[in-house]
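### Sample
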Amino acid sequence: MRWTTPRTRGVKLLLRSVVSLALLAALMHAVGWSNVGRTLTGADPAWAALGGALALLANTACAWRWRALVRWLRHEVPWPWAWVAYLRGVALNAVLPGATVGGDVWRAWALQRTGLDWPHASASVVLDRLSGLWGLALLGGGCAVAALLADAAALRGVQPGGTPGPWAAALGVAVVALAWLPRALLRGGVAPTGGRHRWWGWWATLAQHEPARHWRQQLLASVGAQAVTVAALWAAGQAVGLSLAWWWLAPAAVPIFVAAALPVGMGGWGTREAASAAVLALLDVPPAQAVGMSLLFGAYALLQAPLGLLPLPRQPGSA
């Protein structure tokens, strides 16, 4: 394995910071600094505070989901430890270049120190990210089906001519198939891998440890956590005067949140705002409101960052 030097890592972090700031500055220039400034200064404090509270609740739900994944891998960590460790990872992601990479690596390292081997510890973090993306896609797809059937006129610039029924039916089938896919992979994939390599041992553990029960648990936890996260984004939108129904914001949040997680910038800044402006333009949302909503939502992670300074609770029986 080739290790990078501290100087090389520093250069990469600097480049990512520059890319993030340059993208954000270019977007702000295109939209208009004064337009975004007026949008943010006129934000409703009550809606903004509600969004911050929902963002914290969403991260709490994500911490519970991660702990459930760790238990699926037959390792136990106390709930206070999982909550603080997850929030510390969120804090690192918010202040370090590289989007979600830094905090996730730290979570895997911290979990290894509790006694779980490195392949299982790192798998828990990767699976947690995949579970979140899975829940986001299911939520966005399900809401898109409902919105197409109830309010297809809102997609004036997106949906081709014709009735929305066939589109909604096709999307509904895709959502059901995606919901069932992890369980099907667990049932069919354990035989080929068989845990023969130590890095695939976690797969055999998942497949042999009550997969149906844990699959349902991850399904509910991931969709629920993403629903609260979208609610936080919606509250930020309400704060800046964005009148967009929650069930339309949920499908739009899929590319927005994916763009924020790309490891090309710092804390999702720039990529998240660019995705918000591009995607919400399809729903006739003014770019200043889209960018203002995204900036306010990004600020929630920064406001939570001090929680990462909380001391990590000791494991029972640790010295």
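Residues 206 and 299 are 36 Å apart (CA to CA). This sample (Lysylphosphatidylglycerol synthase-like protein) is used throughout the tutorial notebook.
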